[in-house]
Write a structure and sequence with these properties.
4 helices
Length: 79
C-alpha cells in the first residue's frame, strides 16, 4: 500500500471526523472518479430492486435476516 502524502493524510483525518452522511458523500464522489456510473445500469438496478421488493410485499418470497442467511450459506458450503 502506498504511503499517504501529508496533504492526503490531513484530508483523511478531517474526513474521518465528519458526520456519516458527509463521509458517504465523499466516498461516493471518490468512487465515481474510479468507475463512473452508467445511467442505464442504474435504471436496471432500480427495476430489479423494485421487482424484489414487490416479491416480498406480495408474499411470493420471504426475506431472511442477513445473519441467518450467512449462517445457512456457510453451513451449505462447509465453512
Amino acid at each position: 500500500m502506498q504511503t499517504l502524502t501529508t496533504d492526503a493524510a490531513e484530508f483523511l483525518e478531517v474526513a474521518e471526523s465528519l458526520p456519516i452522511e458527509m463521509r458517504i458523500a465523499i466516498v461516493d464522489r471518490l468512487l465515481e472518479t474510479i468507475q463512473p456510473t452508467d445511467a442505464e445500469i442504474d435504471k436496471l438496478w432500480v427495476g430489479e430492486a423494485d421487482r424484489r421488493a414487490e416479491e416480498i410485499r406480495s408474499g411470493k418470497v420471504t426475506a431472511k435476516r442477513g445473519d441467518v442467511f450467512l449462517k445457512e450459506a456457510r453451513q451449505k458450503l462447509g465453512l
